[in-house]
Amino acid sequence: ELLKLMMQNLLKSDEVISKARVLLHDAPSLHLISSQRRLSTYPPTDPLPKVEVSKPKLSDVISQPWYEDRSNRSWEHRLQQQRNPGSLGLWSYPYFECHSKRWYLTYTAVIPPSGTHSSGNTPDTRNPSLVSLDMDVTRLDINQCDPEDQQQHNQHSDTQVTFFLGTHKCHNQSSKCVFTPGYGWVRGGYKCECRKGYFPRNNGTFNGTLVDMAWESIRYNKNPIYQMYVCRRCPEDCPECKSDEPCNATYNWTFRIVLLTISSLCILFTIVLMGLVYHYRSVKVFRLASPTFLCICLIGCIIMYLEMAAIFPVLDTYSCVATKWTRHLGFCITFSSLLMKTWRVSLTYRVTSAHKIKLTDKQLLQWLTPILLIVLVYLGAWTLSATPGPMSITDYNDLKFKQCRYDWWDHSLAVGEVIFLAWGVKVCFSVRKAESFFDEAKYISWAVYNIALVNIVMVTFHLLIFPKAGPDIKYLFGFLRTQLSTSTTVLFIFGPKFNRIVQGTGDQYDNRARAKGVTASFSLNGLGVMNDEPADLSQENEELKEEIQKLAAQMEFMKIVHMEMNNRHLKPKPGGYFSEKNSVINTAQSPGAKNLPPPVQAAKVSDASNENSSARLSPAAELASERV
């Protein structure tokens, strides 16, 4: 193999020839003509070698390594062999020259005699004339690594001796040998790298020369220094590491259990709210707000709370699937149920004709069902075709932990939710001045604005402010997002209703709505209560009686006003609404009645007083007393 490498290098260039000599044996004297390249460069590239001519002694020549016959055959036999057609010269063993501190390999050929000399003497076949070439083998690298790594062997095949493959001294179980070219004709031309799952003691690789020395030390001297070059195993659950420190982030289970317990209590509280909504479904404050959609909203809140249970353990495939479903499905149910009710109010206020819009809960559910079906189909296709799974990320301390993978499925659904959220904000903004009993539209708008704001803030925290937060911090962010969006929504929607139930005013309308002319039949169900439940006859009778009394009072009032205006000679009852004293007071209090007659001024003031005091005294009874 060594001769093959030398021949390959000779075919490429003669620069591997460091020395050349011709030994002429002309008895009784010797003539040695030698040529040598300068050793200033490596490998030698000097085109003008130095030539020397000398007359050495035979004893000095015989002791040279290039002359020594290591095959124990006489030069006469070599000469006889070289006379055969196609025969070659002989190669010496590699030897080290102390002067140049290099390893050489010499090729020697016998110069055949040309016949009988002029003196008549036959040539000396025991000490014939020779020509030799010294090849520098110091530049050849000895590869001691394992033969399995053929790619490394073929990279430097013209300068690499592969006869010594598998003679490295790396610890095979914990490290592997990596061939390092450029060391030359010496041992240790490699380095030991730790295998996957192991790490070095000195935070690097091991030099092959030192490893060879340590191996000899433990073999012959029983010195345990070789243990310094054995890689150590990584901690458990660490496929790769640089030290014995843990590579995985630790979980504060006490902290996570506390947050999960709070979320579980919120789920329990939401279930109780559903029961209370069903129990008080006939009370106006709930009946006018569509109990069906209130329960659907609470179901969505429960699903969103369940996300905290999905991300509680160390994430795996099942946890990631549950996380995606609870997060997106819960948001869709909650937000859609709130938005359908607000959208119904928006349609009611945009009507420009006298036609009465009737949107029942059943009709709104027909709009809500396709939205939920689209989300369910999307989540199902996502789960079956590209099942969400965990991925390893690092925190600020380069500790690894699992997080659910994000891909184009997440991004597409996020874009759809942003568009849906923006449309919801627009609808809520369009009904900001709409009047409804119990301020239902206002509280829903607050809830929608809060959901949009919380999601924007939490995305900013996740992606921009704390992109490499640890697992417990990310769990805290998820808890805060759930509480600030879901719990706040429950507080906005159901807090005022149960407050009225506690105060006993759940069936009473506010005076502000009455003053603006909002009738008892107007609610978030549109113009007219369109619940699918059977109507409460006693409640309807009260409402009809109230409307008839109001209409009768207005008709009687207009009748009295016209009578007073057309009969100036009649004097009003002292102390009544049309007395002079009350007329002056009412005229002073009414800035828009300065140019009207006193009876008309009193009529306008009495109208406002009648509307504000309708809950205290029947208008018909009051006007009847005026007539008397």
From TrEMBL:
Instruction: Name all G-protein coupled receptors family 3 profile domain ranges.
Output: 255-502
Q: Where is this region: Disordered?
A: 572-628
Membrane topology category: Multi-pass membrane protein
GO MF assignments: G protein-coupled receptor activity
Q: What InterPro entries does the annotation carry?
A: GPCR_3_C, GPR158/179, GPR158_179_extracellular
**Entry keyword set:** Cell membrane, Cell projection, Coiled coil, Disulfide bond, G-protein coupled receptor, Glycoprotein, Membrane, Postsynaptic cell membrane, Receptor, Signal, Synapse, Transducer, Transmembrane, Transmembrane helix
Where, per UniProt, does this protein localize? Cell projection, Neuron projection; Postsynaptic cell membrane
* Regions crossing the membrane: 253-278, 285-305, 325-343, 364-384, 413-431, 443-467
**Is Membrane set as a keyword in this record?**
yes
What superkingdom does the record give? Eukaryota
A GO cellular component annotation in the UniProt record:
neuron projection
**Bias type Polar residues, positions:** 580-592, 607-616
* Principal localisation: other
A Pfam family of this chain: 7tm_3
Show the coiled coil region(s).
534-561
Q: Which residues does UniProt assign to the signal peptide?
A: none
Q: Which family does it belong to?
A: Belongs to the G-protein coupled receptor 3 family.
Per its record, how is this protein called by name? G-protein coupled receptors family 3 profile domain-containing protein
User: What organism is this sequence from?
Assistant: Cherax quadricarinatus
